[in-house]
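User: Thanks for the earlier help. One more: NYN domain-containing protein. Can you show the sequence and predicted structure together?

Assistant: Of course, both are below.
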Amino acid sequence: RGPIRGGTALQAILPRPVGGPPVKKQWMTQSQRAHRPDGSRTLAGPIRSLMLNRTLRNTLELAVSPHGRGGLSGRYREVVAAHLAETAAARAAGHVPEVSVFWDQKNMPCFRSGHWRSARDSLQRIFEFIGGIIDHPITRIEAVEYTIEDRESDLSGIQSWPTIMSLLRQLGGVVHRVWPPVTDADDEVVCERIKGFLDERARGGPDKVLALMSGDSGFVPLVEAAQSEGVLTVMFTDQGIIRYFPPGADFSVAVQYPLWWKSPNDMDIRHVLLDARSVALLPDEEILPEHGTVRYNKGVLALQGGRAEELDRRKLHSWLKDTDPGYGHVSSAKHDGSWVRPGQRLNDTLTASLRRALARNGTE
């Protein structure tokens, strides 16, 4: 398939996994699980994770710097240093790849509305925070929702609050629909979209950064396959760890980042991101001396795409075809038992059932 574009330590191209991640197994206690030797489930790469320093680029530059504390050594340092040199040369030439974010919202429900901020503004600041860490403009965000409705709903029906996916649509994200809510239905769509992202690049499309927001380790084989094809991949997990996969390499670098939605004790990051009075995500030209040290960058959010690009992977029963096309709910007039599914004796009434029973035994 030819050489890998943008790769540093070129390795063999890994095959992409078929389908989605493995179906999650039922929770088991530690004594019921199969024994795994220590380190057998650890991804290849440096054992010690790095601490985030505003952006991933700054963090890695300090990790390979001979004048600082470092953090990377051996071949890890050599490969990452060569990758950073290529990235710096591309930036000097005016080439800054765009970022496509794939959000596995079921496994990483990282949304939290902030104090004195609207829900939409809070969601926008969260993705600006993610874009600031990657230090590349985010031009696409894709997610999956479980819904039976044919059209998008502006309200969730609970206290008239907008749903998260409706907010993402308002920002310009692409939200795909699946039904019924089974274990891996949304994961399969995420994998399908990531493979489409890789196929577009393989056909000669522009180089882009692949960002995955998910706490599901089942995506790792696909992410490693993308890395082997020369794609810079960043995986945000729900454990406070970012896995940075240098393109063309055979390892990843772990970077710790703050969780603004999970830790009840880490109120500082929530204040920094979601408080309306916070000045943390100001652009560099607006930072004043009285603002103090700014620890986080404000990323560029210029989303492209729309409703026309959303996938419909819903699998509905035939009896739902006669429903309200707007919301997909069964009309209240259909609940009296006069309407049954073809070939099945369901949605029946007790009176009609007794009449048939009397007809069968000849007593009527």
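User: Great, one quick takeaway?

Assistant: Residues 1-10, 154-161, 323-328, 330-337 have pLDDT under 50 and may be disordered.
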